[in-house]
Predict the 3D structure of the following.
Amino acid sequence: MHTQPFDAAAGARRPVGEDGPGCLDRDRLHAGIVDPEMDSMRILSETAMKFPAALSFSSGAPHDGNHDLSKLSYYTDRYLKHLEDQGVPRQRITRLMFQYGPVNGFIQDEVVRMLRHDEDIEVGPEAVMITHGFQEATLVALRGLFSSPDDVLLAVSPAYVGIRGAARMLDIPLRPVPEGPHGLDPEDVAAAARAVRAEGRRPVAVYLVPDFSNPSGTVVPLDARRRLLEVAAEEDLIILEDNPYGLFAPDGEKMPTLKSLDERRRVVYLGSFAKSAFPGARLGYLIADQEVTDADGTRRALAQELSKAKAMFTVGSSSLSQAVIGGMLVDHDYDLTTPTRELAAVYLERLDAALRALAEHFPPERYAEHGVRFNTPRGGFFVVVEVDFEADLAAMEHSARHYGVSWAPMRMFHLDGGGRRALRLGISNLDPQDIRTGIARLARFIADTPRTGV
């Protein structure tokens, strides 16, 4: 007797095909899963593994050289001693480490002190949520702030791929705001908000990386930061400030964060310890001190309200990761700026090596000959190189396989279909000699690739 297995995706019986029972139609999955653009994060992370012989400029992985296995246990013990010194009973410390902990985490006090010291940000611990890196902080913030299909997220373009992915997975429509040479222009944000409102929809928030943005390395000037806060108030927007690179500015060039300038509580600050501590902890934080008022007049910090979303996403953040990061903060007296100066020097040296090598192979005065332009960021992990051909994934794989150098297509970061003739070089995890070698290989690849014009 011929049987028809139950198709869970379709909710109906279907004939057995060549693929056999248990197969799902791909087009029945969520659009964020099916969309090939959503594979960008995995591709960037795994390119080095796929082409192990190639020098990889594909990702923005932090420098490996400052990690020390002995520090894992040292910082954990340091934090446990810190709790004991505060009079926390041993039984409670044991439970905190081995059991499920508070949803919003337990190192809020340490993060508050760090933010006060490093960023001049003044918030209470109730405004802090400890998260599984920036990505969870973003998902939690978006889930809480966007309540209607007509709510729109404004985002700088090009942008870190994680923001588009988070919005896509939550079915939140994105409106790109093109980036200029000095980052996001506040007047462009205002114009985009008004355009969305004219369409009968509601602009809710705007996302940007104001310091050495990923992927383009731009920095928003101080006057523009202040004006952006004014625009947020005028247009009733929340600013989602992502700041993974601000600590690595050259000496004397560190800019105040938007959150430190935020007098009207318009900024939700999204932080991560991946760059300043170590990525394997997978720990970040969300700062949301906006007051939320219930019908009965009860007021709570937005971060406390958002705990409902975090509880459903991950229940809570790793106790061991929190202990390691907490111990690091305590041990450095809540100062990450000073211990990261040596690391900042490493990144600035690598950026300088990349810019010098690019200038050597692609002199600006000979642009007509080679057809290559590149920007010159003052800091951060990335350089953008414009070329005269389609710099897509196929070109990148050809470059990695046959020339021994990989990179990231800029089209992955553009929210408006741009970036087709540009690539991003991540310089953070290659030493200067490998950077010079990699750019020499890149130059050979570019020279051998036919120019296709505009």
